[in-house]
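Suppose you are handed only these lines of text.
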Amino acid sequence: MPQVSLTVNGTRHTVEVEARTLLVELLREKLRLTGTHVGCDTSQCGACVIHMGGDSVKACTILAVQCEGASITTIEGLAKPDGTLHPMQEAFREYHALQCGFCTPGMVMSAIDLVNKHPNGLTEQEIREGLEGNLCRCTGYHNIVKAIAAAADVMQGRRSELARAAE
Amino acid sequence: MYEFSYHKPASVADAVKLLSADPEARPISGGMTLLPALKLRLSKPTALVDLSGIAELRGIRRDGGTIVVGALAKHYEVATNADIKAAIPALAWMASTIGDTQVRNRGTMGGSVANNDPSADYPAALLALGATIQTDRRKLSADEFFTGMFSTALDTGELVTAIHIPVPEKAGYAKMKNPASRYSMAGVFVARGPAGVRVAVNGAGANGAFRAPQMEAALQANWSPDAVAGVKMDPAMMNGDIHGSAEYRAHLVTVMAKRAVQNAG
Ligand SMILES: Cc1cc2nc3c(=O)[nH]c(=O)nc-3n(C[C@H](O)[C@H](O)[C@H](O)COP(=O)(O)OP(=O)(O)OC[C@H]3O[C@@H](n4cnc5c(N)ncnc54)[C@H](O)[C@@H]3O)c2cc1C
Ligand code: FES
Ligand code: FES
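From them, the structure of the protein bound to flavin-adenine dinucleotide can be written out as follows.
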């Protein structure tokens, strides 16, 4: 069986996989990192989004063997070891950006990539377009958009309009 | 997915060797089309030959009046590349509208071109811009390369290595997206440049991307949105399905052509 060596959330793993094993299967079934979800398995819903070399990608549409040498971050890799949440996670909680939570790991991972790719901040329209690859069946997206705007302000060191309004 | 073996060659020569030794082996680039198809068991390759480790397939550069795009250039790279944004902003914008961020972070121009999905964006751009597709063994004009829905002039085991795009004076693109899949229902790319005035359509045709000669003649005579507004497309040439009838798509092509000329300025 092929072997793949990759770094997941800072830890190096060498795992035996089948050539047809998907990255999301490696993460969930071999490494037991079940925060990355499978919603559609047809590359459309974004529940499986993780970061590979800093870019958001769909882990259901990548073979594990394609990740040789890659550096992967999953939702489990965001919070600090002491449990302090990443600003994006904190904002999702603060702004009630989830209901059932199924889409949330993928949303958070996509949102962080989106903010990182827009160092000068984002408009609401850019946030909505940036979420094209993530489907949520519960929230209607409004609070997700608000959470991302607020987290972007925190991540980029601005005082948040939204935070001010909420005060 | 059925079982297959996996290879990751470091050169085009090695990839071609692997593919010619086994006619049932398939290349994989971004996998954004191939992996969903394999999951549906639509095909059963014996082996996947991963092109992503081949340095000579990477990169985007300007070479005089031509933009050369390596087959492995991701949609995200095409959308954000400074040379493309300066020379062919319509192509950069097109790339930014493909699928979603995660698809653009993996999918490649070479994979899209080789696949020639009738709703894919790039084939219309390459036809309209008069691009040349370089393979491991020859050069083909876009007109020769795209031979109909999901069909190209590539031989079994032949690889797209780069796409050469002459820089136009003006180019513009407009598309109507399917509200669910976001794939093109009708997209039109117009260009005026070294290859003349050319207009190509994706998403709408019954047999894949195609050029629209009447629109080209109209724009040759008068480069303005009004010039194409009067050109009616024949519904018999169009695809009709649950997303839209052939008549609707024929109408959309004219509307998108008008907007594409507007966008070109
Ligand atoms: C959710 C979703 C939405 C999408 N929306 C759009 C859209 O709006 N517009 C659009 O245009 N596309 C869209 N796509 C398709 C996407 O653009 C793909 O990236 C592209 O069609 C294929 O590129 P790839 O690198 O992923 O190719 P792969 O999937 O790796 O390969 C595709 C085919 O080409 C062959 N191949 C790959 N590379 C080469 C090569 N260099 N030479 C010869 N053959 C090769 C493979 O064997 C395979 O048959 C979407 C995909 C998804 C999953
Ligand atoms: S599970 Fe990967 S996109 Fe839906
Ligand atoms: S919170 Fe339920 S799917 Fe998004």
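What can we learn from it? The pocket of FE2/S2 (inorganic) cluster (ligand 3) is lined by residues A 98-103, 136-139 (CB under 6 Å). The longest helix of chain B spans residues 246-264.
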